[in-house]
Structure formats: structure tokens, C-alpha cells
Automatic annotation (TrEMBL):
The Beta-ketoacyl-[acyl-carrier-protein] synthase III N-terminal domain, residue ranges: 111-191
Protein's name in the database: Beta-ketoacyl-[acyl-carrier-protein] synthase III
Biological source species: Streptomyces lonarensis
Keywords: Acyltransferase, Cytoplasm, Fatty acid biosynthesis, Fatty acid metabolism, Lipid biosynthesis, Lipid metabolism, Multifunctional enzyme, Transferase
Catalysis performed (reactions): malonyl-[ACP] + acetyl-CoA + H(+) = 3-oxobutanoyl-[ACP] + CO2 + CoA
Any one annotated GO CC term: cytoplasm
PANTHER family from the UniProt entry: 3-OXOACYL-[ACYL-CARRIER-PROTEIN] SYNTHASE 3, BETA-KETOACYL-[ACYL-CARRIER-PROTEIN] SYNTHASE III
Domain comment (free text): The last Arg residue of the ACP-binding site is essential for the weak association between ACP/AcpP and FabH.
Family annotation (InterPro entries): ACP_syn_III_C, ACP_syn_III_N, FabH, Thiolase-like
Amino acid sequence: MNPDIPARAAVLAGLGGWVPDRVVTNDELAARLDTSDHWIRTRTGIGSRRVAAPEDATSDLAVRAGAAALEHSGDPGVDTVLLATVTPDHPCPATAPDVAGRLGLTGAAAFDIGAVCAGFVYALATAAGLIAAGAADRVLVIGADTYSRIIGPDDRGNLAIFGDGAGAVVLRAGEPGEPGALTAFDLGSDGSGRDLITVPAGGSRHPATAAVAGADGHFTMRGREVYRHAVTHLTRSARTSLDAAGVAPAAVDRFVPHQANLRILASVADELGVPPDRLVSNLHEIGNTGAASVPLALADAAAHGELAAGETVLLTAFGGGLAWGSCLLRWPELPPSPRPYLRRSTP
């Protein structure tokens, strides 16, 4: 690197979230499926989830969350839009350019990132690289998914876990070490686990023709095996980021993992040695929202005053692929958050 060129870092400048109005409770699922509120809560920690309206696609959720993040940042302009999603509006083209255009950002670089539930952290790392290289100055990073579109109508397990939503952050170019600067990224994958979380049909391997319509077009997950991999890789990735930054787990003020299920979150916090009261989660209210889960948890916590300037915040996520990623930041002083996107209820 040219020593005459100052180093640049991606710095958090704003955040926002959006979830659909429709609430699907555990009791509603139990009324038509072989399950119960008790069964779902004890296995996942989830009490309800949000489901997008029939007329809403992933781009619609992403636009709402992106607009909230841009407003919170105080500057509506960005030069790059990254959308992490496993449920794009279409297989082709990418959804990000449409989102950018609808936000008034025509001309901005825009592309999708597909790393399933790890997608948002992958998108953060991509944005940080673009900013560090001088290829971007302000980046809107969105995680958005509509799992209700790809889960089978009788899939008791996955219907209980997943919900729809979108979360977003704005990153600006800044200096390494300043509050809000993203650092200590760790990314990884293991393709031998590609069949653990998948939608079998719809790609070039297994085209979604009429002959393979139906179950092969729905999302599948081998829960017990995913649980084991999730705990292992989330813990290992988070620890790698902490070690790279020279931060002890006990020094983590707020731990924000992908909102997979409560058992996984508690196990990872315990394995790391992060006190349970420092875990940030809104899983009970909205379920697992895929690539949206980390930014939604951040936006919710910020809106309710649960993230203070100067706190060390650890992010980590795991998803299909298999793929995982982690990073750290020191929470910056941000403008007051707008009205929370989520009105909390009592667990």
C-alpha cells in the first residue's frame, strides 16, 4: 500500500429496519399444523413471526428498510447498494439495481450477495473492501428475505422458525480506529454442507420446470445437523475476530449473532464466554429473518436505547453454503433513532 494514501475504513453512519404488519403467532400455526406454542417456544424461543403481504416482494421490504437507514444517516446519497438475500425478486436480474432505482439512487453500483443467513456480514465485508480500495465512499447495505415465499405450506418446522423482514445500514468512508469503524472480519465456507440448507430446484443443476415443481422448489433444512455446524462455526468465527482485534470475550459489551434460534444463540454465547445479559435478540418477536436478522436486531436495539456509544459490539452469522462470518465495531454516536419499526410485546 502506498504510505502516502491514507487508510480508509467503513464506518457505521445509520441504520433502519422494516417488518410486515401481519403477525403469525404460534397458536395460529398450531391451529392448522401438528405443533403447539409450547413445542415451538421450547425448541426455538420464537413466539411469533412476520409474513409479507401477497403483493410484497423482497425488493419492497428492502426499499422500506433502505429508506429508513438513509434517513437515519442524514444523507440520502450513496454510490453503492448491496443487497444480501436468498429470496430475490427474480433469478435474473439481480434485485439490488431495482431497489437502488426506487430509492432514487439510479447510477449507483448495485448487486446482490447470496450467502443465505450469513449474507449481511458478507455484504459488510464487501462494502468495507470497496471503501478501503477507494471504489466507494458511501454504501447502503441491506439484508432482506421473504422466506414465506419459499417454505412449503405444511412444513411445520421451518414455518415455525422463519419470518420476513429487511434491515439496512449506511456505511461511510472514515478512519480506522474511529468509533463505528468495522474491523476484524472473518469469513469462511464449507461446500461439503451444501445440502444441509437448500432449495433443490430453480438453478442450473435442477431447473424449476413443471416436471420438478412442488416440494423440490421449497426450502429445506436438516435442523439437527445445522444446529451442530452453526454452534461450531459461529463460535469459531467470532473467536477468530476477537483474537484478531485483541479483544477478550469478557470485553464484548453487546453480542449480536444471526437470530437462528435461542438455543443456538445461548450455546454460542456460553462457548465464547460472553455473559448472557449481553446477547442482543429480538427472535421472540419476529423469528429468523435470514440475511435481515443481524441488521434488524441492531436497528431494534438502537431504537430502544440498548446500544451505547463506545461499546464493543460483536456481529456473527451462519447460513447455507455452508457460510459464516464475523466482525467487530465500537458503537458510534449516532443521531437519535426514528420511531422503532417493532413494538415489543412481553415474551
